[in-house]
Amino acid sequence: MLKKKILLYGGSFDPVHKGHTKLLKTAIKTIKPNLTIVMPSKNAVLKSNIHTANSIDRFNMCKIAFKGFHHLKISRFEIDQAKKGPSYTYLTIRYLKKIYKNYKIYLLIGSDRISDFIQWKNYQYILKNVEVVGGIRIKNEIMPTFDGIKLNYQPIEASSQQLRINPDLKLLNKNVVYYFAAKGIYAAEQVKARISSKRFEHTLRVVDMAMEIAKAIGYKNLTQVYLSAIYHDVCKEINVNETMKIVKIHNQKLYPTIHTMHGLAASIYIKRHFFVNDKKVLSAIKGHVLGNKNWSIKKNNTLEMILYCADKLEPHRTKEDISDRIGLLKLAKKDLDLAYKTIYEETTSKYAKL
């Protein structure tokens, strides 16, 4: 009697992209498994970088990306196993052999992992207990010495690291993109790649300050607070030509200088390139440079005022920037409307002189 087949596909999936899904589809077509198990890892032992997305988010992104695959389950085994120590593939295989006793296990690995396979913990145990399936590029790829099934196919060239910084709908499932964009999972990585270390440090201080004010006044949507603060200066250091390419028109009545348009530019840029669609977040970022005399909590401008105040009150601001930073911070936590009005009046007078 022929044994049933299990196809195991593990990885960090940070994020999962179309290169992953194409490789798995190719393997399923070749192996014809009765069950396919996708196994997000806790931390890859042979990789120095830690995951940007937490295990829950990577698990959820896999559920989105692999939706529609027949007889497929996403497993939390390695994520949960990591609470007890490092998660090694041989332990996963040992576990599956106990659960699925009458199955033959096939282990799918991509070309990026084939080269270091012999460094895997107890790799000989793996070879004895599973059939290794390797995703081999059609050209210029050599299968290592172990005996395995070669999947000769044309891969989709995609790098999870690059896709975190530059999301591309051609290489990512759009719903995966909308998932991580809405939560700001890769926001810090995206911003850090585009501004100086000094500006990024300022950004992180604004994030902390915005969160501090938001929690003090009981603002519920902290994801909105984080997104607006982490992205607010992403276009601060671009030049005039780049700014104009983004905003198209310089309305001098609204923005006295090109420099004061970096909030507007950022709101356009993150919607276009990072797929951030929250209107409140975009509004807060757009207005954080100059503010608006009509903003108030009653008019539903709480997020805008939180970001504006946090930017002006972050710890490295001097008396030249703001006259009474500590006093105004205390006020913002008690009466955001009054604190905002006070800061707005002080800073607006400076821009009026530009």
Automatic annotation (TrEMBL):
Residue ranges constituting the HD/PDEase domain according to the UniProt record: 195-325
Catalytic activity: nicotinate beta-D-ribonucleotide + ATP + H(+) = deamido-NAD(+) + diphosphate; P(1),P(4)-bis(5'-adenosyl) tetraphosphate + H2O = 2 ADP + 2 H(+)
UniProt GO BP: NAD+ biosynthetic process
Keyword Zinc included in the entry's annotation: no
Protein's pathway: Cofactor biosynthesis; NAD(+) biosynthesis; deamido-NAD(+) from nicotinate D-ribonucleotide: step 1/1
GO MF annotation terms: ATP binding; bis(5'-nucleosyl)-tetraphosphatase (symmetrical) activity; metal ion binding; nicotinate-nucleotide adenylyltransferase activity
Keywords: ATP-binding, Hydrolase, Iron, Metal-binding, NAD, Nucleotide-binding, Nucleotidyltransferase, Pyridine nucleotide biosynthesis, Transferase
EC id: 2.7.7.18
Similarity annotation: Belongs to the NadD family.
Record function comment: Catalyzes the reversible adenylation of nicotinate mononucleotide (NaMN) to nicotinic acid adenine dinucleotide (NaAD).
Name of this chain's protein: Probable nicotinate-nucleotide adenylyltransferase
Organism, scientific name: Candidatus Malacoplasma girerdii
Upper classification of the organism: Bacteria, Bacillati, Mycoplasmatota, Mycoplasmoidales, Mycoplasmoidaceae
Gene symbol of the encoding locus: nadD
